[in-house]
Amino acid sequence: MRLFAKIRRGFIISGKFKNYLLYAFGEIFLIVIGILIAWKINDLNEIRKNRIVEMKIYHSLYEELNANLKVLNEGIVKYSNNVNRLEATINYIGLSPEQITTGAKDTIVRINYAPMVLLDGALNSVINTSKFEIIESDSLKTLIANYPTEIAEFKITDSKINEIVVNHLQPVLEKHLALVDILPQENPKYNNIRDYGRVSNYYTLLNTKEYQNALVDRLIQTENLLTQAKKLRNRTQVMGIKLRQELGYPEENL
Question: Would you tell me the crossing angle of helices 209-247 and 138-164 to the nearest 10 degrees?
Answer without folding.
Answer: 160
